Amino acid sequence: MSEPDTSRRPSRMPVLSELAPGVRRLVAPNPSMMTGPGTNTYLFGSNEVAVLDPGPVIKSHIERIQEIAGAPIRWVLVTHTHPDHSPAAAELARATGAELLGRPAPEGRNQDKTFVPDRSLEDGDRVLVDGVELEVIHTPGHASNHICFRQTELDWIFTGDHVIDGSTVVIDPPDGNMKHYLESLAHLRRFQCAALAPGHGEIIKNPDRVIDWIIAHRLEREAKVIVAVRANPKLTTAELVPHVYADVDKKLYGWAERSLLAHLIKLADDGAASCVDGQWVEIP
Ligand SMILES: [Zn+2]
Predict the structure, then answer these.
(1) Which of the four, 75, 104, 190, 249, has the lowest number of CB atoms within 10 Å?
(2) What's the 186 CA to ligand 1 centre distance in angstroms?
(3) Which of the 8 DSSP states describes residue 251?
(4) 160-178 as b/e, with b when 16 or more CB fall inside 10 Å?
């Protein structure tokens, strides 16, 4: 799920693409302002298949996944349990007998509780699919249970909503956590992988530059937040929005407030700001 962006219409993407030998992408028919062209479902393997992020429960998409698989679906993997990524997993596993792999849904709203993994994946775990390893990378931030998968043969990282193509992702507290998000970006950067395959949009072929840009963009916003809190002490989060997001359409202030809160919580964790009775002040 990306931050809504009215200026950028969902781009067209082919529904089914063979990205590399044994790696296919099927775009779910759920395009929107929040999901771009739709959720990317990835299929790994030719003689046995793992499906990553089957998306929301859309009958035609679940059927299409099974039609194109061409071999038994042995695993259904999910990057995280937001409603545009995981709800079809349980149904697909029921239909195919596949093992469900991922991390359980945390408490809170906007979480798919129907996803109950047969095996909870930990950072560094490896799933062997048709002779190729998928390495698990725990990347909390966008969601606390978010994981990425590195296909070790191609050295591509499948990033779910940790990094997406052409937009920034929503960090919605309390499950979304800006400090963890930035740490997870730095962690991902250390892999120096060949490409990123996101949960929305096209393959990213310059991963290091894109990750550096995202980190810089978030820190730039954080700098604006601290300047705004300093200049306007004792405002609530909602009252601070126009001071920090003057560049954002007023219609999106609801989302901007969630992102702003994520920045403020990080600043509080860093000891740079504090909140008393809902009002924010800088700690000099
Ligand atoms: Zn998400």
Answers:
(1) 190
(2) 19
(3) G
(4) bbbbbbbbbbbbbbebbbb
Which comes out higher in pLDDT, residue 137 or 248?
A: 137
* pLDDT tens per residue, range 12-54: 789 999 999 999 999 999 998 889 999 999 999 999 999 999 9
Q: pTM here?
A: 0.94
The number of angstroms, rounded, from the C-alpha of 187 to the middle of its chain's C-alpha atoms is 15
How far, in Å, from the CA of 110 to the mean position of ligand 1? 9
Q: Say which residues have a Cβ less than 8 Å from residue 52's Cβ, sequence separation at least 6.
A: 41, 42, 43, 44, 77, 78, 79, 149, 158
The type of residue at 128 is L
What amino acid is encoded at 146 in this protein? H
Question: What domains appear along the chain, each with residue ranges and CATH number?
Answer: 16-205 (3.60.15.10), 216-282 (1.10.10.10)
3-state secondary structure of 83: coil
Task: Please give the average per-residue pLDDT across 142-157, as a whole number.
Answer: 98
Helices (H), the chain: 59-69, 88-96, 178-189, 207-231, 237-244, 253-269
Whether the CB-CB separation of 165 and 204 falls below 8 Å is answered with yes
